[in-house]
Amino acid sequence: MSPTPLAARIAAARPAAGSLAAWWLGGSGFIFKTPAGRQIWIDPYLSNIVQAMFGVARAFPPPITAAEAEPDYVISTHWHEDHLDPGCIPELARRRPHAKFIMSPGAMAHALSWGLPASQVVALAPGQTLDLGDVKLTAVVARHEAGVPGWEVPDAFGVILDFNGVRVFHSGDTDYDARIHRALAATPLALATLCINGSVGNMNVHEAALLAWHLNARTLIPHHHLLWARPPDKIPAFETLDPNLLATTYAKLGGAAKVILPVVGGGYTLTAAGAVPH
Q: Is residue 244 classed as helix, strand or coil in its secondary structure?
């Protein structure tokens, strides 16, 4: 990975027509930059608020800060704190008053309570599409049953991002659900990003590999596997945090897509043919 700070790399990126630049923030967070220079952020977790709330610290510093961030659109797939971050979303809204924050209705209730102006917040639910000009967003059903009282999110969603034919599917947090691949059956994807940690309502690597096998994607990037600093004896045996296991399981199923093992802050060039690290 380049030693140049992520904020500088994003600012310097000039994607060619028919392509995108992309970066992984760790966790479930991704940034996409279009040829027109617009930045679409998904599920950024830039603070350490989960440590204050639950005693679980980040495993690495955020690769970019809210003060450096320049999103035009921020998508939060549900209201859990590592997707709708109360430690950075209000600051992003203050610093970027023209940015739009796209989220589920349940997440919207949280964001408005933090003081985000209603004019900046846009609700999105599975089956709905937003046309933002050089990108169209379509929310796809997610089944994220955390099993924690008070933290259920029945309106969680995944999202298809269509950048003028360069299409990306971001799963958000979800268990395996046949409704997902049925919704995507006719959609050729340059990239699918799939959660793999296998706990609190998320696919494990084997379920993610099966979903990937159903998808018409050129490349795959696993996520939600490298965020929390926990000693080995505090990690449940059923959690699947090794992205290599996704690659091997998917290969055993006969999957043809290239699996990219992401690096925090790592960058990618996307075309309709797939993603390539840069």
A: helix
Cβ atoms < 10 Å from Cβ of 193: 27
In a domain, 5, yes or no: no
Query: Which of 91-100, 161-170, 228-237 is predicted with the least confidence, judged by mean pLDDT?
Result: 228-237
- In this prediction the pTM is 0.97
Say if strands 29-33 and 121-123 run parallel, antiparallel, or are unpaired: unpaired
What local confidence, expressed as pLDDT, does residue 206 receive? 98
Where would I find the beta strands (DSSP E) of the chain?
20-26, 29-33, 39-42, 73-76, 100-103, 121-123, 129-131, 136-141, 157-163, 166-170, 189-195, 217-223, 258-259, 267-271, 274-277
Question: Quick one: which of 127, 132, 126 has its CA closest to 101?
Answer: 132
* pLDDT per position as a tens digit, 112-132: 999 999 999 999 999 999 999
User: What is the domain-level CATH number for residue 231?
Assistant: 3.60.15.10
**Domain annotation covers residue 2:** no
